[in-house]
Structure formats: C-alpha cells, structure tokens
Write a structure and sequence with these properties.
This protein has 241 residues and is of the alpha+beta class. It has nine helices and five strands. The relative contact order is 0.12.
Length: 241
C-alpha cells in the first residue's frame, strides 16, 4: 500500500489492537507487531523491534529473512538507523541507502543484504524497556509521507499496548508463582496469610514481599516463610508458667 489514507491507517491500528489486546506474552506480541508493521510498505519488506533493557540493546523480534548480522552490527558499533531513533527519540528515514552517507559500515551491510531503504521510529513500552521499530524495504523510495506517519502511529499505539501486555504477563507470572508457592507447603501458605494481615494487602503482594526478602537475604522462600511463622508464633505463645 503505497499511499495510506485515514481509513487504511485506522485499519492497521485496529488490526494491531486485535492482535495484542488479549496477549500476556511480550515475545508473541512483538512478533505480531513486526508482522503488522511490515505490511504497511508495498513490495518486499521486513521489520524488526530493538529493545534497550538492562543488558543493552538487542533484537526482540524480527521478520524472517532479515539477516541477524545486519541488526547486531548496529548494537556492536552503536550506529545505524535503529540506534539513532532510540538515541534521538525521533523518526529516522533513508529512502535510498545507495545515496545516503550516514552509517557507512552498516549501510554497506544493508545494501549487500538487499535492503535499499529504511525507516526507524522510537517505541516506549515502560521505564524499563525503550526501543525502536524499524522497517526495511527492498526497493528505494517506498516510504511515502503516509507510510512515515503510519509507522509513527503504529509505534506509539504499540507502546501503549505492549505496556499492557507486559503488565498482564507480570501479573500472570505472579499468580502462577503464588499458586506454586502455596502448593509447596503449609508454611509458605501461613506466611502469606500473616503478611496479608500485617500489611492489609493481597496474596500476590504478600508473596512478592516474601520473595524480595528471600532474594535480599539469599535464602530459599521456604526458609524466609519459616522464620516469619516462627517469629509470630513466639509472639503469640503464652509465657512458660
């Protein structure tokens, strides 16, 4: 679709929403984002999502056929359209890489891989995960003004949806962990109950407090639970006569 109009842009955003709205798996959601974004460009095209997290930049999802070395070279050198979009928080466009003098080493790799145009836009998921959505085209001059606008809207919309996906995934993980912890034994169960009463909080929050304490003390969760239960029992036990 060379020229995208309001109805078509709305359709792209609706398709993206339908794919991500019920997901609680970030990796699957990013794959859906990549597939949707690649479709906004006419002709052969690919898409990738770069995320910067605690370990540095990495490719979170990418279209099949996009050379991994093309993506990794940006992270190794710190230069390239994706890294520039992340750094400047702005749209980065090269509609004809053969005539572009930016990122010379990366550009040579791109051209040899059959990539002749690139468009990168920043994506913000939450304070722990920012990145870029990058679309690559086999043919030059495929990125019209409408395509650029659509990419920016998709990235902004995706950031909101992916934040919700990440939050649902975290909650699902906590719920699963809670069920597993409670199934481990009566001691953890009692410790969670004690924490709920002491802090007037939910079972999920109580478990998270116990887990954080266990991590800080470098102890198993069951050991922390036993200490809490024993401390409370000593407080409520009547003194010896």
């Amino acid at each position: 679709m060379t020229d995208l109009h309001t109805v078509e842009i709305a359709a792209v955003l609706r398709q993206l929403t339908a794919r991500l709205i019920a997901s609680d798996d970030l990796d699957e959601a990013l794959e859906d984002l990549v597939e949707t974004a690649a479709d906004v460009v006419e002709g052969a095209s690919w898409c990738a999502v770069t995320l910067v997290r605690a370990g540095g930049p990495s490719t979170a999802a990418a279209s099949a056929g996009l050379p991994e070395a093309l993506l990794d070279s940006q992270y190794d050198s710190g230069t390239g359209p994706s890294m520039e979009a992340i750094r400047t928080r702005d749209l980065i466009l090269s509609d004809d890489l053969s005539a572009d003098v930016r990122w010379p080493r990366w550009r040579a790799r791109a051209l040899s891989a059959g990539v002749n145009a690139v468009l990168a836009v920043p994506v913000d998921i939450d304070e722990h995960a920012i990145g870029a959505l990058t679309v690559y085209a086999a043919d030059p001059r495929r990125f019209t003004t409408d395509v650029g606008l659509t990419a920016m809207l998709v990235a902004e919309h995706a950031g909101l949806l992916l934040s919700a996906v990440l939050d649902r995934g975290r909650r699902a993980g906590v719920h699963a962990e809670l069920a597993e912890a409670l199934a481990d034994g009566e001691t953890v169960n009692r410790a969670v109950g004690i924490m709920m009463v002491q802090r007037a909080c939910s079972a999920e929050t109580a478990l998270e407090v116990l887990r954080s304490t266990a991590q800080r003390l470098d102890l198993p969760l069951t050991a922390v639970a036993e200490r809490l239960v024993q401390t409370v029992e000593r407080r409520v036990s009547p003194p010896p006569s």
